[in-house]
Specification:
408 residues; mainly beta; 5-stranded antiparallel sheet; 5-stranded mixed sheet; 3 helices; globular
């Protein structure tokens, strides 16, 4: 049977602060054989639903997702099974193991986006240590499926549409790398949030020409877009300095800088890790409190924060601080805000009233980076340890589990 989530299964390093570092070190040692899954997305095709995830080992992992009508016997998850890789199969098609694995490069991958240009053209955008790689997904997937091996390298695929590589430097230097933390495609342009002194980069997708760097936005982690009431497109960016920047996409002008350091405790700097846009009226931000452990005055033991903004007023309508450090946030179909952090759970919030967690969904990873929502509302979460748990739309019933390797 599928399993129900329980708060008693949630493990947080902050329940016992004195053993935090020891617990973390033990967990990392136990998971040396597994990559850390850094980001993920559901991808719809005419015949199936895929779950894709990029990882710290430079690989993209793809799993076939069972549909909702598959029997509960198939959905059963048993972590004590001697054959960790084998789960009940449906016509030999659905297993915990990846359907395909593709090496993108030897460095770490930190972000991936699936962008639909048209019915005939979909792009897979992957970012990490080696910049940004834009892949024609239809061509790429056809080649992967016809490949006789379940594992391969991007450079070895005979792609009809060559991948495009974008390097986050005005003068690309192959000997120097900067971490690409997030990407976004708006029209004919590719934007990247990068952990360097430039922060935000803008390229033309077709010509690969670097059009602009935004010098006053260093060390960025997240970038999102939203539409205004006048149907103009704006960019939201945030990073290490705790400043939310709002940009006009059409002329690249800075509209406003909003410092989140003005909210909450004084003397504690904020680092924006993730931005989630609900609609034209609301967006939320998740991040880390820097120096909170050193703040002896008024130290409430919190290490992270959440904040919700009203788009029309560009003002904070809700704010809270959290024990864990949020690493990603996303809105669910029921309009609740979901956050994942360095604990073994995903937290659910009323985004306009962040006074308490309304629900926690347990997961197998002790530190969660992947938070993906399927078209039917099912929720995928994973991270350290190379495991992704699939839950129903309520976040209360575990349906399936995916792994990257067949060893515990």
């Amino acid at each position: 049977m599928a399993t129900k989530t329980s708060l008693t299964n949630v493990h947080s390093f902050y329940e016992t602060p004195t053993s935090c570092q020891n617990e973390w070190n033990k967990y990392l040692q136990a998971n040396k054989r597994h990559p850390t899954l850094m980001d993920g997305s559901f991808i719809e095709s005419p015949n199936e639903l895929l779950l894709a995830s990029c990882a710290s080992d430079g690989n993209l992992y793809f799993w076939k997702v069972p549909n909702s009508s598959v029997s509960e016997d198939l959905m059963q998850v048993d972590d004590d099974d001697d054959d960790y890789a084998a789960l009940a199969q449906h016509d030999g098609e659905y297993t915990r193991m990846p359907f395909r694995v593709c090496r993108i490069h030897t460095g770490s991958l930190s972000t991936m986006q699936f962008h639909i240009v048209s019915h005939e053209k979909q792009l897979l955008v992957v970012g990490g240590d080696a910049g940004v790689v834009v892949i024609d997904f239809v061509d790429f997937w056809n080649q992967l499926c016809t490949n006789t091996s379940s594992t391969c390298s991007l450079k070895d695929l005979n792609l009809l549409v060559p991948p495009q590589h974008f390097h986050p430097y005005p003068s690309p230097d192959p000997n120097v790398t900067a971490q690409v933390n997030d990407t976004l495609i708006v029209g004919d342009h590719l934007y990247a949030a990068v952990g360097d002194e430039f922060g935000l980069y803008k390229w033309h997708l077709e010509t690969k020409q670097l059009l602009k760097t935004f010098h006053n936005t260093p060390y960025l982690h997240s970038i999102q877009s939203l539409k205004s009431e006048t149907d103009a497109t704006f960019l939201l960016t945030g990073g290490e300095e705790g400043i939310l920047s709002i940009w006009n996409c059409h002329n690249d002008e800075l509209i406003q800088d909003i410092s989140l350091n003005d909210h909450g405790r004084k003397g504690v700097r904020k680092s924006i890790k993730s931005i989630a846009v609900l609609d034209d009226y609301w967006f939320s931000i998740a991040g880390e409190l820097i120096g909170s452990s050193n703040s002896t005055n008024n130290d409430n033991g919190c290490h992270g924060f959440l904040s919700t903004f009203s788009v029309p007023t560009r003002s904070v309508v809700a704010y809270t601080e959290t024990l864990s450090r949020p690493q990603r946030c996303a809105f669910l179909p029921n309009r609740t805000l979901a956050t994942c952090a360095n604990e073994s759970a995903v937290s659910h919030w009323h985004f306009t009233c962040l006074d308490k967690v309304i629900q926690k969904t347990c997961c197998s990873s002790l530190s969660v980076h992947v938070l993906a929502v399927a078209p039917d509302g099912r929720l995928a979460m994973g991270g350290v340890g190379g495991v992704i748990d699939l839950y129903d739309a309520t976040g209360q019933e575990q349906l399936f589990q995916f792994v990257t390797t067949n060893t515990k």
